[in-house]
Write a structure and sequence with these properties.
alpha+beta; 3-stranded antiparallel beta sheet; 3-stranded mixed beta sheet; 5 helices; 14% strand; globular
Length: 159
């Protein structure tokens, strides 16, 4: 894919990470998301933000996002992708889902909702509406519940 087809922002050779004057609608949306979240809109954050937030609701890993960035000619290091995902999570733009204790997924839908994790396929999928909890546990003394993560692990049936 060429840069014009993808409109992905990338760092230039000058070392500047400022935002240039020509912004399309998608880039303006990402720019506003970053500013509203209190993050400086660097070229790297804008490039990854476009991949994350302009393609609908998504579950990504750092590795899958890195591959997308490389395919879009947004040459970033894997460390930059990890750092940016962590910054987006801390700013409330993403939700980290630790599906199997090793791999983390990043969800662009930050609302409380359950997931299916397809073991052996490394895929995270939202559970359709209908799961309900009738009672939440009491928090330990001096604590409060920060969030609830429900992950239902699935595996293919043996034939």
């Amino acid at each position: 894919m060429d840069m014009q087809a993808t409109n992905i922002a990338t760092a230039d050779d000058s070392g500047s990470d400022g935002v240039g004057p020509e912004l399309d609608e998608g880039m303006r949306h990402c720019l506003q998301l970053l500013v509203d979240a209190g993050l400086r809109p660097t070229r790297q954050r804008l490039a990854l933000g476009q991949l994350l937030f302009l393609r609908g609701h998504r579950h990504v890993t750092a590795e899958s996002l890195y591959e997308e960035a490389m395919a879009a000619n947004a040459y970033l290091s894997l460390a930059t992708v990890y750092n940016t995902l962590n910054q987006f999570t801390e700013a409330g733009l993403l939700r980290r889902i630790a599906a199997d204790g090793i791999k983390s997924f990043f969800d662009t839908d930050t609302s409380v909702h359950p997931h299916f994790y397809l073991e052996g396929e490394d895929v995270l999928v939202d559970v359709a509406d209908g799961l309900a909890f009738t009672r939440m546990p009491e928090a330990l003394p001096g604590h409060e519940i920060a969030r609830l993560d429900v992950i239902v692990h699935l595996r293919r049936k043996s034939m």
